[in-house]
Amino acid sequence: MQYATIPGRSVAVIAAVLIASACGVRSKQDPQSREQVEDGARAASEVRSPQPRPQASEAGLDRLRLPPGFSIELYTSQVPNARSLALGPDGVVYVSTRDGSRIYAVLDHDGDRSVDQVITVLSGLDTPNGIAYHDGDLYVAEPDRILRYADIDGQLDDPPSPTIITDALPSDPAHGWRYMRMGPDGYLYVGVGAPCNACMRDEPIYASIVRLRPDGRELEVFAHGVRNTVGFDWHPDTQELWFTDNGRDSLGDNVPPDELNRAPSAGLHFGYPHCHGGEILDPVFGEGRTCAEFVPPVQQLGPHVAALGMRFYTGSMFPEQYRRAVIIAEHGSWDRSDPIGYRVMVVQLNGNEPVGYRSLVEGFLDEESGEAWGRPVDVAVLADGSLLISDDEGGAIYRLTYE
After folding, report:
1. Which domain holds residue 253?
2. What backbone torsions phi and psi does residue 27 show, to the nearest 5 degrees?
3. Which of 176, 163, 186, 141 lies closest to 18, judged by CA?
4. Residue/partner pairs of 152-155 with CB below 8 Å, 24 or more apart
5. Measuring CA to CA, which residue among 292, 393, 400, 389 is closest to residue 84?
6. pLDDT in tens, 359-389
7. Does residue 29 fall inside a structural domain?
8. CATH code, domain with 181
9. Spatial distance between the Cα atoms of 317 and 16, rounded to a whole number of angstroms
10. pTM, entire model
11. Residues 196, 367: Cα–Cα separation, whole Å
12. Is 387 in contact with 327 (CB distance < 8 Å)?
């Protein structure tokens, strides 16, 4: 297969696709039956019409609640709609956007863990939520394709033209913002969400995690029955894939839970749309099925918390109980009667068994007003063991430390 080098996506083409989606135009591949409450219109609207967001400031940090010994600081407030984090060479953090069209590079030139410069590296992209860095190359996932920017580090001010490594991903706007990481096996892993709230599609690529070679070869489904994952990582000892998954809507305020899952091998099915949370049969798609057919979550998370980015804590700065624990950014509910989430949580493990699910950073949500001033999206562990947290509501990245 030949891979073409291309300029940025045509604005006219993007506009035509979005207008067709907004007007309800259906393609031949669109589902025709057994489809319940759709959140596609909401998702497409969010992508088309980003709203102005408040800018984070140091003043807001005194509202955050942390365990004893922890401190948090504003790393940078110059990254509007900050989403996924990818660590480049020491001192370089790549930051994606979803409602925006840009990729940023946050630079610490002298290694003092203080930001010296923020550069807009790429612009004009289509929902570039998913990014991965590997061997000097930056990979960017748009809804239907993955781009590679070769040798990006030395060309931040004048990046190279991208190469398309695949354009075989679905273009549906609902859950069309990708999450992507490079696995320890040398494959790119990409989340492909369900194109709906709850529905059945014949194409196995939907509601899955796929993987492919960095040159685009060998695209395959690695995990099935995954409604929408926007965060995964590999256990530092076993190299097994773990991932968060967002539960479906419209079953009530308290069900189903979001999930933390473990995929020790390829080909496993994690339940969607038949079973949610390992124990709740879907009122439509659960007919004739049992939850015992599917892999249950390692840990049920809060209902509708929107669990997104996650990392195993591999640093040495935090206390012993955090070593090898899973740190999860919970973006926060969008349609629950009483908002929940808007925090960073920790799932502590004994081997593969959870022994605690507790708060690490909370206070982004004003519990009296129900208004959130921050929404955690992703986390990343720096070389010194401190933790970065992205916030797309405040357009910021925070740095969590422990003494």
Report:
1. 11-21+37-402
2. -90, 175
3. 176
4. 152/88, 152/121, 153/88, 153/89, 153/92
5. 389
6. 999 999 998 899 999 999 999 999 999 999 9
7. no
8. 2.120.10.30
9. 50
10. 0.87
11. 30
12. yes
